[in-house]
Amino acid sequence: MPIFGPNEQQLKENSKKDYEKAVALKGDSRKEDAYRMRIGLRVRGHIDKLFVEAAQKAEKFNDIAMIHIAQGKSAPEPPKPPNFMKLLTASGEVWSYLPEQYSKLVFKYGMLYQGMNISGPRAILQTQRIVDSIATELKLPNSLVTLEFLRKQLAEEGMDVDAEIAALEPGDGADLKEV
């Protein structure tokens, strides 16, 4: 280990190990529940940040794709989501890991929302389903709510977000298949 602590790659590897450890925990002691919840909260922060990043990258990607198409070139490859993200927490910076199958889906919904291909309530519902799946995988004692910032924004615009989400057709589970 370097003199000044672990390097970025080691921190990323540790975050993946932390996630895998949380998934593998079998017991339900307070200590294990607290560990799972800590990792779950990291994942929620990762998902929220990833959704925003996807929306930002979608804007740039769509502009570049339109230029390429107008010039008769093939569209560029879409951006890829990161499985690791640095998060700012109350105790400082921490790396978070999100398995690829989930990061791809969150990124997809962020890009679709930004491109106005899905509504805000649909993006929230689909992303919440991902978080619910992760919460089940982590055996969390409580549910996690994601995309609070988008829920709040839509509510400020006069939308009854919960009613809009409830009005959407229930999914068939296909939403969590790998993209």
Protein described:
Helices cover 60% and strands 7% of the residues. By secondary structure, it is mainly alpha-helical. It has one domain (8-172). It has a two-stranded antiparallel ribbon. A hairpin with a 2-residue loop joins strand 1 (84-89) and strand 2.
Secondary structure: number of strands: 2
Helix and strand succession? HHEEHHHH
Q: Sheet bearing the most strands, described?
A: 2 strands, antiparallel
**How many DSSP helices?**
6
Q: How much of the polypeptide forms β-strand, as a percent range?
A: 5-15%
Radius of gyration: 18 Å
The neighbouring-strand order within the major sheet is 1-2
Helix content: 55-70%
- Global outline: globular
**What's the domain count?**
1
The secondary structure category is: mainly alpha
Average pLDDT reading: 89
Which regions have little confidence, pLDDT < 50, spanning 5+ residues?
A: 172-179
Distance between the termini: 37 Å
